[in-house]
Amino acid sequence: MMEDTASANGSVDQALSLLNRNIQDYQRLQPVSFETFLNMLNANPSRILRNIFQSFHDMVKAHVDEYEEPMDEDRAEPIFTRYDCTRLFVEGSDNPYFPDMLFANRFMKQMEYLRHGAQQNRIYIFHGPHGCGKSTFLNNLLKKFEQYANTEEGLRYEVVWRLNIKKLQEKCHSFPPSAFEQWMHLVETKEAETNSDPHIKDRFVRVQENDFIEIPCLAHDNPFLVIPKDQRRGVLDELIKNDQFKWQLFTEKEYEWVFTEDTCTVCSSIYHTLLELFQDPKTVFSMLFARPYYVNRRIGNG
């Protein structure tokens, strides 16, 4: 009996060791410093500077094969382009969807407009009779996007702030009343109560050990957007070499968002408050991190 128990414990330990070696997704999702983010932008700007519209377009293009063959022998130019959507709607799907040529052409035309046209939040309505596959089409499409968004090719980054507690404590006493000062007052109050409540003491110790407060961006904005608008063109001019992408970035409509969009209200407030507090942009950007944006429809991410 003792031998059976020892054997079972050994098997469990081996299984846990196997999981510990093989599960590494959490490492890929760790935040990186803003400096590291800029290095990645320098190495691969076309991948880093993508919004959700461009990323979705790239996903579709990566899964659809295009054939430039005339579909009518009496015409020199093709009436329709032949698209093979097998990898997008059929492969890996429990319920495959088979679009006809007309639908495939309209769908791909809409994807081109999504990237190069006016990038606005819209509601698209797919109308058709009952049982024509509308839900199957949409589920397969979103499933492929979720898979693509969590790969290196489809990865995007979002803002996450890591506010250094010690630096805030050093500055906060001389700063006008603000959310940071109110929070620091709360911390000091909790610290005073640690002797009377061990649970509060444990919670406070954990905060001190972490040494930062992590605040993710509610809008999942690209970290580059934290840079003030009037500085973005100069920063990109320094980071990106003179090539075709740089010309597209500075001239084409699809990249206007890089120079015109603002960060969410929370991130903007944090940035300006920190800048006013420390009077040093380098210190502010040292608290800015970039986190890979993990898409998971079941839990509402993405």
UniProtKB/TrEMBL annotation:
InterPro entries: P-loop_NTPase. Keywords: Kinase, Transferase. GO terms for molecular function: protein kinase activity. It comes from the Bacteria. The keyword Coiled coil does not apply. This is Serine protein kinase PrkA. It comes from Desulfotignum balticum. The lineage of its organism: Bacteria, Pseudomonadati, Thermodesulfobacteriota, Desulfobacteria, Desulfobacterales.
